[in-house]
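anyone seen this seq b4? input:
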Amino acid sequence: MSKISETGTKLEELHPVVEQKSVKVEKLKPIFKRVNNGITSQEIISTYSKLITDYEKKEVVNFPVVYTIGAFSAKNYRCHRTGLFTSTCASFETSSGDHVAYRYLVDRVLGDGSYSEVYRCIDRKTETPVAVKILKHNMQIFDEEVQALTKISQLDPVGKSNCIRLLDHGKFRRHHYLVFEMMHCSLATYLDDVKNVSVQECGKMMRSILFALDFLHQNKIVHCDVKPDNILMSSSDPNNLKLADFGLATKDPTDVGDSILQTRHFRAPEIYFQGIITSATDMWSFGCVVAQMVLGKPLMAGRHYYDQLALIEQFFGLPPIPYYKRHLHFYGDYPKHCEKFYDSVTRKPFLRLEMIYHAANPKTGLPGSKTLKDVFPDPEQFVIVEFLSRCFKYEPAERILPTFALKHPLFFQEPNL
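predicted toks r here
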């Protein structure tokens, strides 16, 4: 039987992934012995009590099988003394060498966001690297995300949907956590390094995300936050991407109401106009991601709520009249970044940019003053212009569906004969 250190890491025949991790492995005594691929919490208390804190002595009884207790030196003394593991910004307090739920050995932080932090951990039950997402205290999105991911797992038990796989979930020290398969990096990180990709590379890479969106569309699920940060890449296959972070996922269709969903640069018009969320909402965001991959920067990088809408209108003009009339409660008589004037001779109305807005945004033009061809002028980029023109429609029902997008020349691949 292999010997195990204080952190629960095998000292004999280390897993190759574990050898590369940043957690310091110490040879400490006494040494655990595994019992049915773990040890009982009773044995932890009776035999190894010097390796855990007083708080953990009371806590560990709720875990029948223990796979790791982490390094004693990695434990936050203040947190264990007070029993409070939440920082002033509502984040979970942990560090490299500590553990989550007596199973996941914390290696390092992979990323953080408004709702959670993600850690690279070693699953001491399976000896494999995993990504553990720990939500901030009292975040209400946990149930929705678990429900969406559980439904995806049930519909796709073999994991062919190109949606990230949920391996485990639970609550530990008043914080909900979710455990996912480990991926290489996010598309956002990749683009930070390479800046942009060719049209051909973009088509090959994003085809896998279209598979994910098609799967969601067929099963009436809207991701509602498609962006480079939520697209993960595999280390073994750069063209095998997966859609992640289902914290805002909802059913198709859903009323927007007063919610401000999606990240601003990828936000569809119906979110602004309190319309209906459907699978077409994800296709608008998908188009924004495709454009950013080739451009090397967001196509429409608004600085705030109204500025983003102004950039949408700059490319695609004012919404169609039926759409416009449905949303007069937001729009008024004309866009908020414009002023209405009348020709002195014909008395016909025309728009000008509001003076203060124009001074702050000199590069933004009037509605309809710019086209996608202005941004993608190369003849080789015509295919991307044609595809984006099918994504960027004010009316969600007019946007291209993932099923048909897979047959578009930008993404279509001839089957191997």
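The chain has two domains: 16-181, 186-405. Residues 390 and 399 are 6 Å apart (CA to CA). kinda curious what u guys think
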